[in-house]
Amino acid sequence: MKKPVYLDYAAATPLDPEVLEAMRPYFSEKFHNPSAVYLAARQVSQDLDKARARIAAWLGARPFNIYFTAGATEANNLAIQGVMRGFPDSELLVSAIEHESILAPANLFKGNLIPVSRQGIVELDALKRMITPQTALISVMMVNNELGSVQPIKEIVAIVRGVRDERKAAKNNRPIYLHTDAAQAGNLFDLHTHRLGVDLMSLNGGKIYGPKQTGVLFAGSDVEIKPLIVGGGQEGNLRSGTENVAGFIGFSKALDMAQKSHAQEFKRLTKLSDYFTEELRAKIPAAIVNGPAKHCSPHLLSVTFPGSDNERLMMELDERGIQCAVGSACSASRDEASHVLSAIGLEAAVARATLRFSLGRGTTDEDLRGTLRALCDLTL
Ligand code: PLP
Question: Whole-angstrom Cα distance, residue 91 to residue 106?
Fold first, then answer.
């Protein structure tokens, strides 16, 4: 049987064999609890420290600013709830196209959604107007997981710094932090938090060819944050529980590989996604590629096939061995039109005619040629 064409890398990436190799000893001979005091356990603890230091180096951070979590959902919850619980009379602003793991915790607090343009980019003027003296946290993702739109983080950092200066002059002691969910950015973008200027960042092992249920929250030293999970005091008391040593060693190796190759992989995927969109426009003129032409991650393509039913089209593609998505993997399991597509102004019927193709390390020209052939057969 022919190998399926996998075009859902935004939902999950396969574990890289080198990552698996790095993890293997921690399932067997190096199984010890890193908090134990005998030599073998201390060695495991040192290995974990090294992994944390490697991650910190890529993020331009100090090792004690890196908190291991069970995935990006937990890192996002820790960022939103952990900060907002410390400032009960504060408000937060999050973009309207955030992942549910930001929107749901944000909903527990007072705040508002920052609108986005038709291309899925945060409206900076609206953001400026929406910041009040009570705003303590802003959360805007680096790359949107349905459209691939790359958000203007550096411009938002400049706005936040301006607000800090104004507050200083007005003797308003409330902090204002900027968090970014970088779950979709690790393979293709620089994650150096110092160069970016963000205060908090979430990452996800399962999207960078590492293990699922591993993640990291970076939180700068001046960020006041409270734990959501209390117990033995691991992770600087911010996330208790015996560490997932094999998972975090794997995360560190995966991040290392992803960050070393991000510029090269960006170029390779840009060529592939340009080819796909040009061919699509030529062969299926009615198809509409959503998201921005310029500030877009090349691993994500959101395409509307007017008049089609995206679930049926996705199943028909699956029958032909092509795996793609009808939106994000999470909203795919519910019968709702995507909040991201509705935030960019697509009507529910149009959103339900939209598929997401996401590319990754294994994607080839031939995969895309086959997908285009199948799409022509099924939609023309
Ligand atoms: N944030 C973004 C942008 C994502 O794309 C995802 C997963 O699709 C998550 C957060 C949540 O990741 P996980 O379900 O692995 O915790």
Answer: 9
SS3 state at 368: helix
pLDDT digits (tens, 9 = 90+) for 215-230: 999 999 999 999 999 9
Distance 167 CA to ligand 1 centre (A): 33
188 φ/ψ sector (left φ>0, alpha ψ -120 to 50, else beta): alpha
pLDDT tens digits, 61-89: 999 999 999 999 999 999 999 999 999 99
Nearest atom (ligand 1) to Cα of 144: 3
Pocket of ligand 1 contains residue 95 by CB under 6 Å: no
By DSSP bridging, strand 111-114 and strand 135-139 are unpaired
DSSP 24: G
Active site members: 330
Which of 80, 102, 184 gets mutated to test ligand 1 (max ligand atoms within 8 A of its CB)? 184
Helix (H, G, I), strand (E, B) or coil at 180: strand
**Res 333: pLDDT:** 52
Residue listed under structure tokens 């603890």: 45
Work out the percent of the chain whose per-residue pLDDT is above 90: 95
Closest ligand 1 atom to 98 CA:
3
The pLDDT, as a whole number, for residue 335 is: 61
Provide the whole-model pTM: 0.97
Question: CA 364 to CA 362: how far, in whole Å?
Answer: 6
State residue 380's pLDDT score.
Answer: 87
In order of their start, the domains of the chain are 5-13+262-379 (3.90.1150.10), 17-258 (3.40.640.10)
Long-range contacts of 344-347, Cβ-Cβ distance < 8 Å, separation of 24 or more: 344/97, 344/116, 344/117, 344/118, 344/119, 344/120, 344/147, 344/290, 345/118, 346/290, 346/304
Query: How is residue 131 written in tokens?
Result: 């910041």
10 vs 295, higher pLDDT: 10
pLDDT tens-digit readout, 273-303: 999 999 999 999 999 999 998 899 999 999 9
Question: Which of 15, 69, 73 has the most ligand 1 atoms within 8 A of CB, as the residue to mutate?
Answer: 73
